[in-house]
Design brief:
Blueprint (H helix, E strand, L loop, with lengths): L5 E6 L2 H11 L3 E8 L4 E7 L7 E6 L8 H12 L5 E5 L3 H10 L4 E8 L2 E7 L5 E7 L8
Parallel strand pairs: 1-4, 5-8
Antiparallel strand pairs: 2-3, 3-4, 6-7, 7-8
């Protein structure tokens, strides 16, 4: 049997990302290990109460892992929100929106009713997309 343990976001600055995910979103640190010999930091955070999955905050690779041009291109794509999306579920999208807004999260749009539920989105400091959804029973003609 296989299960998802972690997913990963490229980040421009691990300390800035750590402050956002723990200080603003209220998540917890799952792992923060620096391997000096590799000049590498393994940093994993996750929502409190959901211990079986984490989000790895991985720095955009620099030379020698990627050449300078490719590293810059990847960093630019991340900043534009083109590197992926994290989908979060909540029981009350409006309440979560209000709470996170008060903590300093800048949303791309207000909670909006969709056919699948109520949905909104924001980005982390690196530009990664995060969608916040209150899932409801799917009704094709719900507007």
């Amino acid at each position: 049997m296989h299960r998802i343990a972690n997913s990963q976001f490229w980040v421009h600055d691990q300390d800035e990302a750590l402050a956002f995910y723990t200080g603003v979103l209220g998540w917890e640190v799952r792992s923060d290990v620096t391997m000096q010999e590799w000049s590498f930091r393994w940093l994993v955070v996750g929502p409190v109460g959901q211990d079986d999955v984490g989000l790895v905050l991985m720095p955009v690779p620099r030379p020698p892992m990627l050449d300078a041009t490719t590293s810059t291109q990847l960093a630019e794509l991340v900043a534009k929100g083109a590197a992926g999306t994290l989908f979060l579920e909540t029981d009350d999208c409006q309440a979560a929106y209000d709470e996170l807004s008060a903590r300093g999260v800048v949303f791309n749009d207000p909670p909006t009713r969709q056919a699948y539920g109520i949905d909104t989105s924001f980005r982390d400091p690196s530009g990664n997309n995060i969608r916040l959804t209150q899932v409801m029973a799917y009704v094709p003609d719900r507007g």
